[in-house]
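Reminder to self: keep the SMILES exactly as supplied, no canonicalising. Ligand is flavin mononucleotide.
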Amino acid sequence: MKIVAVNGSPRKNWNTDALLKNVLEGAASKGAETKMVYLYDLSFSGCKSCMSCKLKGGKNLGRCVLRDDLTPVLDEVHASEALVLGSPMYWHEVTGVMRCFIERFLFQYLNYDDPGKPLSPQKDIALIYAMNMPENMLEGSGYLKKFSDYQELFAKFFGHCSVLYAPETLQVKDYSKYHLAVIDGEARQCRHETVFPLECQKAYELGVSMAMRHAGA
Ligand SMILES: Cc1cc2nc3c(=O)[nH]c(=O)nc-3n(C[C@H](O)[C@H](O)[C@H](O)COP(=O)(O)O)c2cc1C
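Structure tokens returned for the bound complex:
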């Protein structure tokens, strides 16, 4: 089986990247072929509403016709058995590039004739989020609702969707060098050394379970 990770963080080797790499390593440990895509390395736009993917008798029904750096990524994801999306939370949302990816990726599969029957192939999906928000504020700030809304949306298209999130992430290596006074840098560093490795372990296990569901594919 093949699993593609799509990274919506601009920062390589930081939190989102580490979580996604763990998913891929877990999947690879069970024989999966893996691929990481960094959206910030690509030049692409969101959906332009050209409607070519809905044209009657058209040869592109269910497939995005825009041609840019996202085109081969959409093709690769279309043909893969599993997809993991990772994004930091920026202004209480996934990053702008991740929204653009989601627009393009999902709209092509949306079936206005029969919304209950999307044009997407069945696919195992996982959604991963990294954020500053403290764990005990996730509920009150609406983040858990947002994660479950995205989960429901992806499950409608692809059947199976898991969620994993890492709150209170390390944002900089040395908090003393930045104007970030509301954040307790020492506590963040401590969490990064004690809790974040457990979150990475969960990500690894998620990759293992995704690969196991498709063993032999
Ligand atoms: C432009 C910007 C906006 C952000 N907005 C939020 C936010 O609304 N909520 C939050 O919890 N964290 C926010 N953050 C913090 C990031 O989500 C956090 O640092 C995350 O770990 C970044 O992921 P990365 O380490 O993979 O780059 C923001 C960071 C930036 C740069």
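Points to follow up:
The longest strand covers residues 82-90.
Residues 196-213 form the longest helix (18 residues).
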